[in-house]
Amino acid sequence: MTEGERYLPGRQDRAQYMRLDVARVLKRFHFCERPLIIAQAGWLSSIAPIDIKIALPRHFWQDALTADALRTRVFELRYPSRMLEVGEDEPVVSVFEDAIDAPSALAFVRALEAVYKPALLHAYQTYLAMADDIADGPSVRFLRMAVQDKQEQIRELGEFVQMIAATASDEEKQTAQAWVDALRESLERIGGLGIATPTAGGERKTASLRKPFHFAEVPARDPRFHQVRFYWPNVVDADFPYGDGLRLQLRSAVSHLNEVWAIETGGAILHAFAGDLDWEFILDAARWTYDEARHTKMGLDRLTGWGYRPDELPLGTYIFDSARGEPPVTRLGMLHYFETKNIGKKNDRAEAFASYNDDVSRHDMEFDWADETIHAHYGAKWLRALHQKYPSLPDRDSIHERCDALVNALVETATDDERREIRQIAEAMIQKAERLAQPATGS
Q: Residue 144's CB: how many other CB atoms inside 10 A?
């Protein structure tokens, strides 16, 4: 400033952080959300309670939307640069990357509830308290939504901790507490997650407790349900028809409930390919998995609404089991194969439900159809992307043929005892439905 020159005052609180300062902070938040999304997806098949399997995909889909908004905003603020690197944020990002190596399902969910989601919530609230909603209005808006999401997630996660802890051993509870304590101390040593750049904190306190993550190819399933491989007789018994009328209502609801295999598969592919494919894949896979969770909830809601208890309902594994030991691309192919195989039947079934005056089954089937048209696009896009990146991988049609062969081979292993068991479960459900059924009325 030249001596004697005068200027209008420009000192205001809202000008505390400049454009690139804000970009650095939002980048840090993005890189902390990302490993939690991947971890939540990977852990789905290891967690038994169906309530958690259904809810976690919603959580990490919300997290993915937040992470995507953060990423987009950083690019806007740094235009024309499209570089996004962890860089100086490595100390805090590495603590978030520890999430997936939790020693147990209880430790994993407790850490989400007590450490990770609260750290992000506090960071977003701190940012909003100093943000300029004039210059940085877009960030303010999506972070306000992120705060609401995190608050609701933390509340639900607290319920899930109690759910898992109810059947956990004392040793598991002690290990989970030690894991949470170690994560808290690791975060504190680097200055936590916030506006300031984290400091180096040496070896993280989680080192001795980390259990290297392995995807669970044998899925944990809710013990309240009938544990079976094949969830309806027609899968393994040609003499048992798919059915229409009341039987179609039941069969459709049981099919929706058993899309739990698709939840687990969505999580599996998100985790498996997050490093090979770009950010857009994580975003698509998070939505895909969330949609499958909604479909599972549709079936559970209809069945419980009709008066069925969990112990009356079959929860199968055969489609998920058929890909055991296969490379992850087979699971992506399996999910896409079943989407495209069954999508043409959805509208016919919705029309049938309309003729039964079954509005809720029709409603769910119509929304399912809309979701699956999106999923068919996802599968085709990412199978093609993988084949382009790794030309040695089979093409989409070859993968679909492989999936069909794997499922058929597994169905051939059904035993007489399994056929008898699922027939008894289905017939008991049908008999109960016949007692509950109401006479048809005109529309």
A: 15
